[in-house]
């Protein structure tokens, strides 16, 4: 090994040595370097076009397998690394960096691959720096990423964040429930005053007529206190939305302004103690009395009381009540009615009894209650009559003849709630990830005997806990964003095909949020359990997102049913048995076609190929759909009812629904990144996309092996590739959560302080 002779070296050599010192240090970390390894490293580092001859000279000297550095050479190198100033500002603000970290990091990944030693983590260890270095080392500009991901949302988010920064929004979760609820109501007033509750409503009633904007505003609120979010959702989304969507001009004129200004706080009273998921069979009755031209709203027994109703325990003065409509002794199914429940002073109206649901797991600032009606009379005009009406003479009229179709049309208009809950769930995942990734990048535990402890985020198990979830959060963000815009465009028209996607994404994203928050909580150790660090509170609040707006298992079955219906429609007149024979044959062919190529290939090019991911996700969905159709058919042929047949195959339906959502989410993510013109963003988004897809394939590898789509070697290769992607994304993780654009106030607790 040739000794360094600093005095004799040119300034250029010095600069290059400084540049590549971490790389060289890591290359020699285990004391040996083969020719192959040296060549591989050199191939990589010489790509950059930076003073190639000087780079070559320095590397000749330092990466010579025949002349390893002495311990004192290495110590000198380490000293050089540690004494080199590094610029800590945001990447876009820095002048000429003393060290081209992205380039070094890139090269170190290569070293890592070649030698199996730590790359980025080793760099942080060498530098002995906190996470700000890692942010500076990001391969892209987080502000650009934010702009790319935010799209049309940016302005509305800023508008909402501005209001959320007012002192009233500074909410302590651990406080008396009564005070908490009042503070949440005060926040709602503030939002209403700023017109944030009016965004979705038509301009002619003082709104902004911006459906997508209203869901984006909801998303922004999801970064703050979730009780404010849910109370906002109840007042302006569920209650206001039901009056707007299910009512007609007479209701709009009378109520919409008051609703959006919060002058008329209201409830959405659908669920009953006895009927939650199955709302078609609720038991509250609305009997038309032609003599007085009134409906009589009644709770026939204890189990038919309205339950868990937001805004009911304290503040609601009127409720959209869902009840079985009876006219002249005939039942016409579920309809919605506006029923006053409290007077102006807050006392329950005659015949209305209200109870507080009491303490809950989370959402302590929302006043959920139970409502009982004892023959409460309301005027005929209080029927929300967009889809059906009762004439003064007591005649039932509807443009939709079938009761069942009417019911589903009515529910379909309320799909915005599901989309909003899905979007808010992803925000909860973002907040959890931002907190956990910042913490684990700064917090150090264990390490090499002779060096500082390593950041938690440099450990592979931590990366595997957080980074695939980060990738999924990005992927879901693109699918949700597209769904919101699509829904807004379709608004007022036929939203049936959007319903299934909304149901699937709501179920999938709320589950993702819960899993992510738990992983984030554990990643932060004991500090994560402290309420001031927010993850626990968010997790408690978001928990119910898996239940309200449709319990997840029920929604996933809706998705499966709609896929089966689609299959049937696709083949039109084809008789069912022929169809089944056809799809079975098709599925078998698909496996045979894929086998020789797809089942065995394990090279990185193939493993990261979006077409491979697309094909695998599509294959799984098609196969599950076809085999489900076949199984259902077999059961029905044997005399089972459709309900029995569906129940017998319920696990299958749920797997199909999840497979469908994952395929669709992947497609949205792929489209988004293909449209991105910034190469740096594209590279990191491509890694995230590949990680999302491979992580999904890995997590369902049992199925892929079972179905013959993978051979064992391929399953193993996918596992290695997931780990490799995690390693590659480590240095970008901080910038990726930065790009979520969450105001610091909503993610900063004591964690970072605790980490130092
Ligand atoms: C905090 C909170 C706020 C709420 N706010 C409102 C509100 O403002 N207005 C309102 O109307 N409602 C509200 N709800 C009610 C909510 O919408 C219901 O809780 C929800 O629809 C589920 O109904 P359920 O509780 O009766 O559960 P159930 O229907 O009893 O379901 C229990 C479990 O069984 C599963 N399940 C049900 N059917 C099937 C099936 N066929 N196959 C397999 N599994 C099945 C579900 O997935 C779930 O896991 C609220 C609830 C809570 C907790």
Walk me through this protein's architecture.
The protein has 29 helices and 13 strands. The protein has 756 residues and is of the alpha+beta class. Helix 15 crosses helix 28, helix 23 packs antiparallel against helix 25 and helix 26 packs across helix 28. The N terminus and C terminus are likely disordered. The site of flavin-adenine dinucleotide has 19 residues, from strand 1, strand 4 and helix 20.
Structural class, please? alpha+beta
**Taking all residues together, what is the mean pLDDT?**
88
Spell out which ligands are present. flavin-adenine dinucleotide
**Radius of gyration (Å):** 30 Å
Question: Helices and strands in order, then pairings?
Answer:
Blueprint: H1 11-27, H2 35-45, H3 52-62, H4 71-83, H5 101-115, H6 120-127, H7 131-136, H8 142-150, H9 154-164, H10 177-193, H11 211-221, H12 226-246, H13 249-260, E1 266-269, E2 285-289, E3 294-298, E4 306-309, E5 318-327, E6 330-340, E7 352-356, E8 369-373, E9 376-379, E10 388-390, E11 396-398, H14 403-412, H15 415-442, E12 444-445, E13 454-455, H16 460-490, H17 496-523, H18 525-529, H19 535-543, H20 552-570, H21 576-598, H22 604-607, H23 610-637, H24 642-648, H25 650-674, H26 679-699, H27 701-706, H28 712-738, H29 751-755
This protein binds flavin-adenine dinucleotide (FAD).
């Amino acid at each position: 090994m040739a000794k360094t002779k600093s005095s004799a070296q040119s300034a250029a050599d010095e600069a290059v040595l400084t540049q590549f010192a971490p790389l060289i240090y890591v290359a020699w970390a285990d004391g040996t370097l083969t020719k192959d390894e040296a060549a591989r490293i050199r191939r990589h580092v010489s790509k950059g076009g930076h003073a190639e001859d000087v780079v070559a000279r320095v590397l000749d000297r330092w990466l010579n397998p025949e002349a390893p550095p002495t311990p004192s050479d290495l110590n000198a190198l380490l000293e050089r690394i540690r004494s080199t100033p590094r610029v800590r500002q945001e990447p876009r603000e820095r002048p000429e960096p003393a060290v081209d970290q992205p380039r070094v990091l890139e090269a170190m990944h290569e070293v890592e691959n070649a030698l199996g030693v730590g790359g980025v983590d080793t760099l942080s260890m060498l530098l002995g720096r906190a996470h700000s270095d890692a942010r500076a080392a990001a391969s892209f500009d987080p502000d650009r990423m934010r702009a790319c991901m935010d799209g049309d949302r940016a302005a509305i988010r800023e508008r909402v964040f501005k209001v959320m920064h007012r002192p009233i929004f500074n909410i302590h979760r651990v406080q008396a429930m009564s005070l908490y609820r009042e503070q949440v109501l005060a926040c709602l007033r503030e939002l209403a005053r700023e017109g944030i509750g009016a965004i979705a409503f038509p301009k002619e009633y003082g709104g902004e007529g911006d459906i997508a904007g209203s869901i984006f505003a909801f998303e922004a609120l999801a970064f703050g206190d979730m009780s404010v979010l849910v109370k906002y959702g109840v007042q302006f989304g569920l209650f206001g939305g039901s009056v707007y969507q299910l009512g007609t001009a007479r209701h709009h004129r009378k109520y919409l302004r008051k609703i959006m200004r919060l002058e008329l706080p209201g409830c959405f009273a659908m669920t009953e103690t006895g009927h939650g998921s199955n709302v078609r069979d609720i038991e509250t009755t609305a009997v038309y009395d032609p003599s007085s031209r009134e409906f009589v709203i009644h709770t026939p027994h204890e189990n038919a009381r309205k339950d868990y109703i937001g805004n009911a325990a304290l503040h609601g003065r009127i409720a959209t009540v869902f009840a079985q409509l009876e006219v002249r002794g005939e039942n016409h199914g579920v309809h919605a009615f506006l029923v006053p429940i409290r007077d102006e002073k807050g006392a329950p109206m005659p015949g209305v009894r209200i109870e507080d649901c009491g303490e809950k797991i989370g959402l302590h600032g929302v006043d959920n209650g139970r409502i009982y009606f004892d023959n409460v009379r309301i005027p005929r005009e209080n029927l929300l009559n967009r889809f059906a009406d009762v004439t003064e003479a007591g005649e039932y009229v509807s443009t939709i003849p079938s009761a069942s179709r009417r019911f589903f049309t009515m529910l379909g208009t309320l799909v915005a709630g599901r989309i909003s809950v899905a979007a808010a769930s992803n925000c909860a995942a973002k907040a959890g990830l931002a907190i956990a990734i910042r913490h684990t990048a700064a917090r150090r535990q264990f390490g090499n005997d002779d060096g500082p402890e390593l950041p938690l985020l440099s450990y592979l198990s931590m990366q595997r806990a957080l980074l695939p979830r980060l990738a999924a959060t990005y992927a879901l963000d693109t699918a949700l964003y597209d769904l919101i815009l699509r829904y807004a465009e379709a608004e007022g028209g036929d939203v049936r095909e959007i319903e299934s996607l909304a149901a699937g994404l709501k179920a999938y994203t709320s589950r993702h949020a819960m899993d992510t928050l738990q992983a984030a909580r554990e990643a932060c150790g004991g500090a994560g359990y402290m309420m001031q660090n927010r993850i626990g509170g968010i997790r408690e609040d978001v928990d119910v997102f898996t239940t309200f707006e449709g319990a997840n298992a029920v929604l996933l079955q809706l998705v499966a049913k709609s896929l089966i219906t689609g299959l049937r429609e696709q083949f039109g007149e084809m008789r069912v048995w022929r169809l089944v024979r056809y799809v079975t044959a098709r599925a078998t062919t698909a496996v045979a076609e894929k086998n020789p190529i797809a089942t065995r290939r394990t090279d990185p090019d193939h493993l990261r190929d979006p077409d491979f991911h697309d094909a695998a996700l599509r294959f799984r969905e098609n196969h599950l759909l076809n085999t489900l159709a076949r199984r259902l058919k077999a059961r029905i042929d044997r005399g089972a009812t459709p309900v029995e047949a569906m129940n017998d195959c319920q696990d299958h339906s749920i797997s199909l629904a999840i497979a469908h959502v994952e395929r669709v989410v992947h497609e949205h993510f792929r489209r988004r990144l293909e449209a991105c013109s910034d190469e740096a963003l594209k590279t990191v988004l491509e890694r995230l996309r590949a990680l999302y897809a491979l992580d999904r394939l890995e997590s369902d590898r049992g199925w892929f092996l079972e179905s013959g789509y993978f051979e064992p070697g391929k399953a193993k290769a996918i596992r290695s590739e997931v780990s490799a992607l995690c390693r590659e994304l480590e240095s970008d993780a901080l910038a990726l959560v930065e790009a979520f654009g969450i105001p610091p106030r909503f993610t900063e607790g004591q964690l970072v302080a605790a980490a130092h």
